[in-house]
Every structure is written in C-alpha cells, then in structure tokens.
Amino acid sequence: MELPHYAEIIEVGPRDGLQNEANFVPTEKKTAFIDALWKAGFKEMEVTSFVSPKWVPQMKDAAEVMKEIGGHSGTMVLTPNKRGIEAALTSGAKAVAIFIGVSTTFNQKNINKTTEEAVEGLLPHIKDLKDSGIYIRACISTAFHCPYEGEIAPADTLALCKRLAHAGVNELSVADTIGKATPKESYSLFSMLKKELPEVLMAAHFHDTRKMALANIYAALCAGVTRFDASAGGLGGCPFAPGASGNAATEDVVYMLDRMGIETGIDLNQLAQAISIVEPHVSRELSSWYYQSYKKKEE
Questions:
Q1: Among the options 139, 146, 161, 238, which is catalytic?
Q2: Any alpha helices (H) in 3-142, and if so which ranges?
C-alpha cells in the first residue's frame, strides 16, 4: 500500500480546542498562541468562532482575535448561522466553516432542526458565500456515531456529504465527533467518500476519547485522505456533544507522520513552544505523549 509523501494538518486548537474550556483564556494569550502556531509552519488554521457567547463564552472575543491576527492567509472561522456569518465577514474573514450533523437528533438538540431542515437553511448561505468568493468548509458532525442515535449509517453520511458538495462547498471535514470510530470504520467510510466524491477536498477530524485517533488517522491515510484536523496539546471537545473529549493532539499526529516519512512542514519544537503559551490558562493537563516528552527535556 502506497502512502502519501505529504499530509496537510489543519490546526483547530484555537477554536475547537479552546471552545470547551472552563477557564476563559485571555485574548492576548489566544493571539500569542495563534501567532506561535503560524510560526510552527501551519498553512491553515481555525482561529475562532462567531457563536453566541451565551452558549460558548470562550469565543466571546472572536472579533478582537480576528482584529489582531485575522489577516493571515489560511485563517478560518466557524460560523453556525446567518448572524455568525455576517459577523465573520465584517471581521474580514475570507474562509468560513459551517457545521451540520448527520444525526437528526443531534441537530434537533443543538439547533432545533432536523438534518433536512438544517441543510435547507444552509443552502442559501452557501450560495451567498460562494457568490462573495468566500472559501467554505463544511464540518460534518456525527459522521460515524451519535451520542443520541448510536451508530450512523455510512449511506447517511455519504448522502449529506454529496448534498453539500453539490451545493458548492470547497471542503468537507468529516468528524468522529464522540471519538467512537474504529480504524475499520475510518477506512471503510473514507474509502467510500473518496470513491464517490473524488474531486472534493476532504479532511478527517478525529477525537481521541477512546485513544484511537492516531489509528483512525492511519486508516484514513490508507483510504487516500491527506488532510487532517488536529488540536495542539490535544485540547478540545464539543460543547454540544456529550462524551466528546479532546481532539487528536497535533504534536502526536505530526510525530507519527514524520516517523512514517510523511512530510507536514510543521516544526515540532516550535509547536511545543506554542502549546506552552496556552497551557497555564487551560483547566486540564495536556497529556499528549510528545508534549510531555518536550516538557521533560526542558526541565
């Protein structure tokens, strides 16, 4: 089996990583964290989210974050609805991420809409964003398992991905939201998606709830995926999905790929330095293997 020579890592720590944090991370520390991550070599990054501060208070400073660092090429922001999209565009965003679950129950509990209703609500926004030349990333939640419905039929995930691809999104980020997927499921679903949507840019997004994120990433690599979301320090979790703990730790993903001879363009030492900026301000220990090894060397 021939593996790729290069894989793109989309850093999601500043957004997906911090959104579930109990402690509010000061804006100046967020922007320092983001700046240090850019210096580590990332080409794409989700930096913040224009969501209601009532539901995600960690992101209440989205406009200030964008004012400080939003001009960097490759900057993306999450926008859950029309109000979020308008705020993001006002901030100067050139790339936005929208999200929708495959599971109807997941969508109903989070946005009070069925999956079909959610898609119909997104279609006019996708058209307007395309007409404005904005890059659109569609984040597909509960692509494998749902905290309410259980296992998701691969055909349902494929149908939603096809719908959004045909609507004109630039990229699909397909997520194992509660970290329950197995490598077999990862390989099977991504093989099907790559076969059915060969022209669509596609990323895999794995949570490490059951310590299978790296194995699932390897399985997705074997299925032809070369783009992966990851979060520095393994930060993260979804505030809207019970049981969704941290994301795949970027540093462990990069280390694994480096050892496999797959280039990422990421400087691991600089990445660890970036993590050290935000670590004092988060509520839990950052336990990724690489970062813990880095800290022991620095002692």
A1: 238
A2: 27-39, 62-69, 82-90, 104-111, 115-131
Q: Work out the angle at residue 280's Cα, subtended by the Cα atoms of residues 173 and 24, and round it to the nearest 5 degrees.
A: 65
Question: E strands, the chain, where?
Answer: 8-11, 44-49, 75-78, 95-101, 135-141, 145-146, 150-151, 171-176, 201-206, 227-230
CB 281 within 8 A of CB 23: yes
Whole-structure pTM over 0.90, yes or no?
yes
Secondary structure class of 219 (helix, strand, coil): helix
Q: Which amino acid is at 43?
A: K
Residue 109 in tokens: 């509990």
pLDDT digits (tens, 9 = 90+) for 53-111: 998 999 999 999 999 998 899 999 999 999 999 999 999 999 999 999 999 999 999 89
Tell me how far apart the alpha carbons of residues 181 and 90 are, in angstroms, rounded to a whole number: 38
Closest CA to 47 of 73, 81, 23: 73
Residue 238 a catalytic site member: yes
